[in-house]
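Minutes, methods subgroup
Present: GH (chair), OT, SY

1. OT presented the first of two proteins processed in the latest run. Sequence and structure tokens recorded below as shown on screen.
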Amino acid sequence: MAAALSSLALALLCLLQAGAQVPVQPDLDTEKFAGEWHVTAIASNCSVFLKMKDGMKSSTAIVSFTPEGDLALKLVLPLMDKCQEFELLFQQNGQAGRYMGAQEKRNLCVMETDYSHYAVLHEVHHSEAEPSTALQLLTREQDVSPQLLQKFMELIPTMGLTQDMLAILPKSDQCTRDMS
């Protein structure tokens, strides 16, 4: 029994250490990455997200970059029959693809992208009250292929998240007219 517990503890330590080593897209091309994306799936352990996830719809994200290499993110979310707009600025953190929130304690990492179809983002919110992790699947079109969704779902446990924390967001054109 003691050997099993020590093996479990060692496995958990390995998982925690692996979680800290979030991979980043090599040589992120910010020009190719910039533009309009659709948030089509999210997995997160944030309690607010978990309460709202079943009523969420796909949102639109506009990504741009400042001359200094910082990432500007404009999100338009369909919430409660209204469109809510959020603008966030993430400062480059050592290399293209790794960013930290300018106002909030958030880290954002572009884990993987092919630029023309999909991107996977990893976000950590360092809150004393409730730290949380999120994995987001962004696509250039609102439709997501079953193969891409499967690939995203396979990443979820590698980031310390579980399948019950996943929301596959239904298509929505509710806020597309609000994008500018």
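2. SY then presented the second protein from the same run.
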Amino acid sequence: MLGAGLALALCALQLCPAALGGSHPQLLVERSGSRRLSKVGGFAWENCGDRTDPVVLQSLSVAPDPISIPGSLRVSAAVSSSKAMASPLKAVLVVEKALGDLWIQLPCIDELGSCTYDDVCTILDNLIPPGTTCPEPLLTYGIPCHCPFKAGSYSLPASDFVLPDVELPAWMTNGNYRVRVAVSSSGEELACVKLAFSLQSQ
């Protein structure tokens, strides 16, 4: 689940190696302060589900701040789950960018942005074909990269990831962002996390 969350957050921001095409879409706008976690200009996170959610993010650290693209990203995290999770795992992402005192919701284009993914397990299978070894550092620390995910605690010590030099659309580059990720199965919410961070592209 830890690996799935990281992959979804990065792909939501167009940091996975894929091209985003099409014309400039219609954007949804809301005024700052209408939601929690409105911090601008620094990394922050919080669990946004209720206390009955079986999956809880215990800790998360990201450096540098702001995140630089391309560049190296150092991440440490810990997640606990009181319930085993299997396919299908639905994920709903809301990605917003700050524009002055407004937050603009970025739309879903080519499965990137504020999207609904019907099954995270299928996405992981496409990224890492079943039967292949999980990539480092997941392998070293015993973090699964395929469904099902067993109940238990997963911890990723500080590890470096390379953010590739991908072509980002102008409206999805430098700035302050908020991401909300909610994961559910058969209508039951399993986890909800909010992130706030800054991006700086070269």
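Chair's summary of item 2: The chain is about 10% helix and 45% strand.
Next meeting: continue with the remaining queue.
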